[in-house]
Amino acid sequence: MRAMDPLTARAIDDYHQLLRDDRGLAQELEERFLDRVRDARLTFGGRVLCPFPRPNLVSPQMYEQIRGVCRGIFRAIEKVEARLGEDLWDRVDLTPEERELVRIDPGYARSSPTSRLDSFVTTKAYQFVELNAESPAGVAYSEVLVDLFLELPVMRRFQERYRLRRFHGREAMLSTLLACYREAGGTAAAPLIAIVDYEDVPTRTEHHLFRDFFESRGYPSIVCDPRHLTYEGGRLRHDGREIDIVYKRLLVNEFLERIGQLQALLQAARDRAVTMVNPFRCKPIHKKAIFAVLTDDALQPLFTADEQAAIAAHVPWTRRVREGQTTRDGREVDLVPYVRAHRDALVLKPNDEYGGKGVHIGWEMTPAEWDGAITEALASSFVVQGKVDLLRETFPEIGPSGLRFRDLVVDLDPFVFNGEVEGFLTRLSGTSLANVTSGGGQVPAFLVEPVSS
Fold first, then answer.
1. What residues are paired with 424 via a beta bridge?
2. N or C: which end of the chain has fewer CB within 10 A?
3. H helices within 93-168, ranges in order?
4. What is the distance between the alpha carbons of residues 441 and 14, in angstroms, rounded to a whole number?
5. What pLDDT score does 44 carry?
């Protein structure tokens, strides 16, 4: 599967040509684009989320290929979860505190009804480097960006030649929340949805975007801090309002850090007094070491031929960092000496972190720095992963000096709702870490086809 097909490449060239040939279109972006983004509340920790006035364009054929690959990878992840049971918890290094939470039955079958498979666009294919199975951000941001982009004069001109199709991630999120609620036995016609996370998180603006969307569809919604919840008489409440569904944006790690203040939410989850999505039991497949399980040579017989092919082509070799023997490309290696000797082809990552925190990129480090990173990894819970050869794509960017074109790393992350892809998050960065938390930006995505087809 090539990273960009001819249709996509031609559409991108035509979009850029509009900006180069029509000074009026470029000037309109320079004068108004960033204000449009701010007015739409598309900020992350106060920073403009999107300074790049060009969407990610993907052909329908490529999208169907991506969906098929994601379906195979996600199915393989759920298969190891079902087959390995608590042995998986050991393999991904689940802590005792996490194990207690994972044992809580949410009342429905799936451990991660809403997730995101994070990939980089490479020179040959998409390489999925981790699964965000806990609380994937970006769905509402992406859709509001779509609305904003469709109003741009340059996009109107572009649509004279190309037909664009949008994704519907917010609808898929709402449908997923409601499906989990019904499966867990919920009967309210319009259950109250609480979007729960700490009030000082940088994604708070997205929580409010979701609240507005849910309410526009007839479902009462609130945004609240879990420390402000109460649990009495078998009902979880916020300011007196009874909650039916908890859309949990709070990460398990952050929950455990303040668990003493969050007993109301914990007890409501234990008693199944609310339907919480995602549940605590998503934690084992959220750990980055789940990809060490997927790429374990000894476990390949668990998978179908299609699942094996998807893993081999689109998941880089991954292992937990620890002393001992393992395999690479079918041969046995002593892991720590191997990692030390192959700095230029490896990345070290914390097993359970986000936003690029603690990531050590071997080819950007000196041998001494790499040795220090290995020492850190052995003393903690880390994974090592094979290098992904990143493909840089050209995007326009609005900066202090106006419109310019930059070559950027593209992070393409399909959203997975109950095992099926609906749209994706596209993040851009000038560095090898393409995520918003570490300073990247986000653009919307569209399916693109020539008008004449």
1. 414
2. C
3. 96-102, 139-150, 153-158
4. 23
5. 77
